[in-house]
Amino acid sequence: MFTGIIEEIGTLTNIRKGSSSAQLTIEASTVLEDVHLGDSIAANGVCLTVTSFTSTSYTVDVMHETLNRSSLGSLRIGSKVNLERAMKADGRFGGHIVAGHIDGTGKISNIRKDDNAIWYTIQAPPSIMRYIIEKGSITIDGISLTVAAVNSDSFQVSIIPHTASETTLSLRHIGDIVNLENDCIGKYVEKLLQPYAPETSPQTSEDSGITMDFLLKNGF
Known about the structure:
Layout: E1 8-17, E2 22-27, E3 40-43, E4 46-53, E5 57-62, H1 64-69, E6 80-85, E7 104-114, E8 117-123, H2 126-129, E9 137-140, E10 143-150, E11 154-159, H3 161-166, E12 177-182, H4 184-193, H5 212-217
Antiparallel strand pairs: 1-2, 1-6, 2-5, 3-4, 3-6, 4-5, 7-8, 7-12, 8-11, 9-10, 9-12, 10-11
């Protein structure tokens, strides 16, 4: 588990592509201070397992599903990536609960300065927008951010100079693709609130399936 507080910006130094997978080597320093084989390090918000490392870099394997779901497939040698180690049990919870499991990608449609802040507008598909609420949490390329505004097909975040300087957001341009992970709490709540539909009686769109028996079983 991660918190979305970026520890450093790493540099992609090598890419070995398979038929539908890839192996990435990332140059870093801070995240390597106590690294072990099998450790989880999030790169642009994607939880990846360390398969080998040196004093200056580490290597991870990226499977087909991850390449399809994220922007990692578009990285090139020299690309900068946000890095965060998995959270320690005794660490500060500075951001929000981040699993490192990308829900999909969005596109930066606008960037504007507002005094010392920078506003980013992100276009995203309905499957992601359904879980985004104003003042809620969203993870963009591994960065825990607060949603400042929401429209039907996009949302906005406003970042401070520190966030811009310590992450790759300052390197982003209009049209760039970013990794998005919704707040997992919303997804779990939605799943738990779905009624148990009998196997022999499929639920219809007109019938919510919520019965007195269901409410009693779930503490209502």
